[in-house]
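hi support,

uploading two proteins for the ticket. first:
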Amino acid sequence: MINVLKLVGTLRLWRDTRGQDLIEYALMAGFVAVAAGAVMPNISVQISTIFSAVNSLMVQAANGS
């Protein structure tokens, strides 16, 4: 019975698409930033600074600081 409940839970997880849009928007924003950096080399330093700031915030959040 426990295995059946685990299987049902796994199937529900696979069908759950609530977080999918956020991931797609994040990927598109990253792609636009990379394309902007390739087309406009002067802005690439600013884009790198922004990504570094976001990365440091994510690391702090992951560590619980």
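and the second one:
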Amino acid sequence: MKLLNTLLIVGTLFAAPVWAQHSEKETKEDIARHRAMAAAHEAAAKCLESGKGEKICLVELQTACKGLAIGKYCGMKHAH
């Protein structure tokens, strides 16, 4: 059973790039989205550094990321 699970996982990893083929336009849109999310996260870090507080900075992050990423953490959640 372990071997079967391992083979399924490895097969999925190698097949994933085939499923994720994007056009040049889609790739450029993804790049722009990643850069916008990165800028929003950098702004959130600066917000926290300024001492505004986690709740205020989260609202600012959510506003900056609206329509860019999945979830309320702009596509990234870390452990606390």
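thanks. also noticed: Residues 25-80 form one domain.
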